[in-house]
Structures are given as structure tokens and as C-alpha cells.
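Pinned message: reference record for PCI domain-containing protein
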Amino acid sequence: MPQDVGMNDSQAPTAAVGDAPAPAQSTLQRLKEIASVIEAGSLSKEVRRISRAVRLTVALRRRLAARDVAAFLTFALPSSSDALARLSVLVPKEDGGEMDVDTAAPTAQLLIKHGLPEIEIYCYLLVLIFLIDNKKYDEAKTCASASIARLKSLNRRTVDVLASRLYSYYSYVHELTNTLAEIRGTLLALHRMATLHHDELGQETLLNLLLRNYLHYNLYDQAEKLRSKAPRFEAHSNQQFCRYLFYLGKIRTIQLEYTDAKESLLQAARKAPSTARGFRIQCNKWAIIVRLLLGEIPERTVFMQKGMKAALTPYFELTNAVRVGDLELFRSVADKFSSTFSADRTRNLIVRLRHNVIRTGLRNISISYSRISLADIAKKLRLDSENPVADAESIVAKAIRDGAIDATLDHANGWMVSKETGDVYSTNEPQIAFNSRIAFCLNMHNEAVKALRFPPNSHKEKESAEKRRERLQQEEELAKHMAEEDDDDF
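Predicted structure (C-alpha cells):
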């Protein structure tokens, strides 16, 4: 089971929907204000407001209680709607507790009259989050299936943000119950529907969910076929793009494309938000293994990152064993942390490192000795095969052929003769290392430029003097109104 950790979209503000602080506000009142934001975004077709409502809901989820959710469903959905009847049954009843008393804003009362699809989908999302947090997985699966069936009949851009969250929780609740294989066909159908509806956020979310679904069952070939044939689009969510890079790095690693895998994994760890510590830990674990497979030794600072030292300790000891080329130490570390490596799904990759450990030890031997017998090489490498001398000879021959060591093999006398080490600056190695660093810096600069965000059509629409005066007047009135509210609270 892939061990990456889901990421929060952002640090959601803890203040109310209005900018004025309201510490004594009830959870139900907060939900109603979030619904008013969704209504305003739906009527004005502003997806930004829908995204803000989702962030506020994530910040509020720890305070959700059954009575608040039930009261909000009664408030937001018409009494005759099928959604209300379906969702009310899933929310558990609480006895012995009084419901929070609130005074809803007059504008929020319009929600019942409109019956907007966005409000209905938000109710599905709210109930699904509440059920998952309370570990009621059977009811959550029922709610998720009902929400997906409702989404199939909608094609509105303002629903896309809510739909992408529902897709994620739909897959997550099936992953918790170990039934991911059952929803693969549904996810493929949803991805096809999102492509036809030009829902790019839904496309990238569903593509990541499908890749995660395939990797959960080690179906790397199917995952690569889907990834290579999926429609190309510009990434809209940084979190989804990071997940895509992580899954791509895992696929590339299994397919022995270590250079591309290293670039994808490091980019995913770099782009991930600082709050997504678990995700960044997983990226660093896989990146460390890939760098070791490439013959590189990660810097010590990689293992000493804030909040990651304890989680990366097994990989630090593994790196130390590879660095010194001690095969016996490598075996002991692999056995000591076998459960950790199995949970991270890196155990098969660590088996591949055995050859790198032997090659590193052989390189150290070739530097230390100008001539050494194959029997001594087998003894120093601690080869435990039936014919260690023959194995040492084949290992040395392969290392010489691959260019790992600069030596010759004397078969008649059973020796390995190392050549004198020349000046490394007379070779092309410094230039190659310098070019790789330049390419890395240029790639980081290009990614930073692509990540810049500008308001839509900012190069076409310019604010006139009259519109500017109206906007400034509205801002002044809003500031005055907020100041009056602050005085009243005080």
C-alpha cells in the first residue's frame, strides 16, 4: 500500500468568512457562512470562492459534531429533496445535547430558495468528511457512492473543485477498507467524463487516484500505460502535481530509469508544502534509494532535515553501509530495519543495492592496493558463495568493463592490478559535474517562472478611472463596516 500522506491544500484561515474575527461563533453559524460563500461563487461563477469554502471547511472539520451537520443539512437542503432524505439517515443522532443557538445572516436564508447543485454537493462532501473522521466507513462508502452518482449528472465549472475533493475521499474510504480494486472501473469512467467535460482539475485528481490504485497492487506496467496515454494539460493544483511527480518517480524507479526518477522525486519533495511532512518524508526515502542506485551518496543534511531525522534513520544507516562498501554491515542493516523497508515498499530496491555495495568496496580496494589477489578481494568483500574466488573474478571483470575501476585483471596469477590515479582535472569529469549543476539551477528557475500566477485576462482588461473609484469606495465602506463591528464586539 503506498505510504504517501495526503497534503492539505493550504493553511486555511481560522477566522470567519468575513475578515472580522468572531471567536464566539458557533460551528453551525460558520457552516452557514461557508454555504453563503459557495452560493455567491455559484451565482457569480467564481471558482476562487468555492476553493475558499473548501479550505474553510478543512479548518473546521475538527469541530464538526453530528448535531451541527444534521442542523446544517436541514438548513441548506429543501425538505422535499432526495439528498436530504439520503444524507439525514447517514448522520448519527445525538441525544442529551443542546443544539448551538445562532442567528444566521439574512443573506444566508436565500440558500434554501435557490436549491443550487453546489450546495447539494457540498452537503455530500461535509457528511463524507464527518463520517470518515468518525471512522464510520460503511456509511461513508454509501455516501461517497451516492455523491458520485449525483456528480455524473452535473457539468458545471463551479462544481469541479468540490467534485475533485469528493473523488479523493471516495478513493480514500475504499483504500481504508481495502477495496480499491472495486472502484477502478468507476474511476476510469469518471476520468473519461472529466476529459469530455474539460474538467482539468478533475482530470489530474482522477489520474493521480488511478495511478495510486495501480501502484497499490504493484501494477506498474498498467500505471505507465495510463500515464503515457492520458491527455496532456497544464497543472492547476500544486498538490496534485506533487503527487503526480511522486507516482511518476516510483514508476521510473521500478523501470530502472533512475535518472528520471531522481529528478521527479526531488522535484516533488521541493514543491510540496512544508506542512506535508509525511509526503516529503516518503519522497526523500525513495530519492535516497534512487541516488544510491545511481552510485551517489546523499549529503548528511538530507537526513537531518527538521522533523525527518527519526523517520530517515534507517536510510541513513543504509547509506553509511553503502558508502563504506561493507557487505556484512549492509546485510545487518537490511535485516534490522526489514519491517520499515517492507512498510515503505522499498525492500525490493534495497536488494538491488547489494551490487552497488560490492562495487563500492571494490573501488576502495583498487584505490588502496596497487596489486591484490582475487582471494584477498573475496575475503575483504566477504563473499559467502561456494566459489568466492571465481565470483570475485567475475565481479572485478564486470567493474573494469563498466568503468567503475581503472585496473587490469591478471588471470594467470589471479591478481588485480590497479593503474595509477591521474589528475582528475585533466578529464571531463569536472565539466560534466559543472554542467549538471547549471542544468539543475536553470530547471529550478524555469519551474519558478511557470509557477507564477496572475489574475485571468490581466493583460487584456485594464481598470478604468470610474471603476477604480467605485472599487475604492466599496473598500472604504467595507472597512468602516468592519470597524463598527469591532466596536460592537468590544
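Pinned by admin. Summary line: The two ends are 53 Å apart (CA to CA).
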